[in-house]
Amino acid sequence: MDIKEILQQVQTYDEVGASVKDRDKPLKDYAGLTANELEHIFDIMVKSRRILIEEKLLTRRGESYFFIGSSGKELVDACTGYFLRPNDPFFGYYRNKTVDIYRGIDIRQKFLECIGDPRSASTGGMLQHAHSAHAKESIMPQASPTGSHALEAAGVGAAIANPAPISQQSRYPGGRWPSDAIVYCGIGEGSTSEAEFARAVFYSVFYKARCMFAIYNCGWAISVSVEEQFPDGDPTSPFEGYQRFGLKIDHFDGTEIKEVLKHLRDNTDYCRSGKGPVLEEIKVVREESHSGSDDQSFYMALADQKWHYSNDPILKTAKTLIHDGVLTAEQVKQMYQKYDEEVSRISAEVVADRQLKTRDYIKSLVGAYDFDKARQRWKQLLGGYTGDRKADYKKYHEMGARPSAELPENLGPMTLRRAMNYALFDLFLTTPDAILFGEDVADFSGKMKFDIEEQKKLKGKGGVFLVSQGLQRAFGTNRVFNTPLDEAGILSLGMGNCYQGRIALPEIQFLDYMSPAYQQLKDRICTVHQRSKGQEPGNVVIRCSYGGYKQGAGSFWHSEANLGTFLNIPGLHVVIPSNAEDAVGLFRTAVASNDPVLFCEAVALYNRREWDGVNIERPYPPLDYMIPFGQAKVYNEANRDLAIISYGITLPMCLRASQLLEEKGIHARVIDLRTLKPLDEETIRKSAMECARVLIVSEDRFPGGVGPTISATITSSDAFGYLDAPIGMITAIDARVAYGPDGDRACLPQMEQIVAEAEKTMAY
Known about the structure:
Layout: H1 3-11, H2 35-60, H3 74-83, E1 90-91, H4 97-102, H5 107-115, H6 148-161, E2 183-188, H7 195-206, E3 211-217, E4 220-221, E5 224-225, E6 248-253, H8 257-272, E7 278-283, H9 302-310, H10 313-323, H11 329-352, H12 359-364, H13 371-383, H14 389-398, H15 416-430, E8 434-438, H16 452-455, H17 471-475, E9 480-482, H18 487-500, E10 503-510, H19 518-524, H20 528-531, E11 541-546, H21 564-567, E12 573-575, H22 580-591, E13 597-602, H23 603-606, E14 610-611, E15 614-615, E16 633-635, E17 642-646, H24 650-663, E18 668-672, E19 675-677, H25 681-691, E20 694-701, H26 706-715, E21 728-732, H27 741-747, H28 751-763
Parallel strand pairs: 1-2, 2-3, 3-7, 6-7, 8-9, 8-10, 10-11, 11-13, 12-13, 17-18, 17-20, 20-21
Antiparallel strand pairs: 4-5, 12-19, 14-15, 16-18
């Protein structure tokens, strides 16, 4: 409803009650709030509506490029702002503007956000407005994929519920939020049909998290009725069984202030007490269409349109407060006039002074990685450790958590699996902030987690490939634990712990199984830095095994190396070590990078000591050893006949191929990229220019794969003019890897192919 019509109805409203004399006295009918508190809530509602009206005007004038309404949600949001603590994490959606206003976000910031100005403290102009992010106010970065934020909210709730301590070296010393913080998630009824919402409610129950899910039910998801979303039109029905485990389900009218206040007080008290999470189904109105590109008059019955319009919560609240003597019609008018002038003035100032985003500015927000800062961060983590490392190794060996009492750097060359196990152990020893979880990563599960005497009789598992063996035994079940088999949930738990201040190490068992988690990875974790203007890091190190060459045991869904898929995600570092020493150095950089990292560990290299005679074991490096991202390693740099570029599993093959080529009089250098994003473009181009002939070997497939990306790095630069032959390329065939040794041989690059293609390139 237009605010002027509201004022007109208020001015003619004649059911005026006696004025409340003691404005600081709790009022029973208003859940114990005072008249002054109610006046503040209503003031925020009017302010929010006036800003919304201006946003609509800016869109009509072409000064803003997007409009999405929040009329009808102001009452619930303002009251929610009252009952939540100022630092309770708030995961809103694009209708929750009033919470921003309640938490103190000023008018100027809302209009900088509205027109996409880079000076917006919220998004830096990266997103459409109504997708805010304010770290200091615990307004968590919003995104458009509907329902995705609910799973992240549940991850934060689980992270807060985890009693594992957080150090003073953390980004948030001691933890960002206290143990009784409520995680509030606002969501539209249509978005609750997303699978991620269902998992979010499950996890809030499973982890006994203090989460409140508020479903703002206006009955319409764009033009789809809620009756076509759920059998009974009730988004809470699928979760009724969870009430056995503490979930509270509540329904109330979000247009009636007394009802809203009563239910919100009861629900926040219940949730904060730790009795269980809360699921609210709140009846609200939708006065505007879904967005500026929608027109609900095309499909909503006239009677329904009238109901939504006439039940405007600002009008109803104004009448209720006037009836009870809390406000007068004149006060309501003065509130509007105050904001009408202020909003108009600030809007005009912001538009007149608008600034534009540049290419360099946008690129600067994609990630935070800087190697010098990563080294400083790693040094800071090491500095927080005050124990005796040698004595600790002895202690953990005696309890069965270490295979040896010796420090790993004294053990000589080791396999990649063993080195990664020690790298994880050293990280956990150094800082209590490290936390590792995923499917099958713990030493023990179920009742065995707590049966210490029985554990002494067993080795413990520690992952399908034993990479995390001994970690849970040494550091406890709050820091190393199994999760439900749900990759999206694993990554959301990673982001939740990152927000809370921990070093999150979620494990996806195989790269093949990243698909269910793709939205959490691509749309949330990897965008958080850019969509929050750098306020929030996404430093989640996602460990996963990858690749084939499993002696025939791989096949579909256990042999994927489709890393080109992940190169196309802005903000994500893709790291592929080919040996033990590199794995440790790159892992430490990943931990300290402040960005999301996909850390791929080749299953075929885990336990290999050599590959066709090429020794691939390496010594464990000193604790301060780190490797920068985007810095390749060059073998036989003096050789200039041919440059063979590879990474990961195929790197040892290329080294062996170079030995065989040497016997044929072809002197090849081999480049181990080590990270695929960022690529060491300088070394790639330099090698192409110096050798004039290039062979790329990649386990990825050709279409959209790593190989063509490397090739384009050469052909799109001056290096192209130095080539004496077309770039040779060997990739996996365009098929999923077939079962058995014959499947590996047919589908994946083989040694004889590398040698043959090298000779072909040399003969051109």
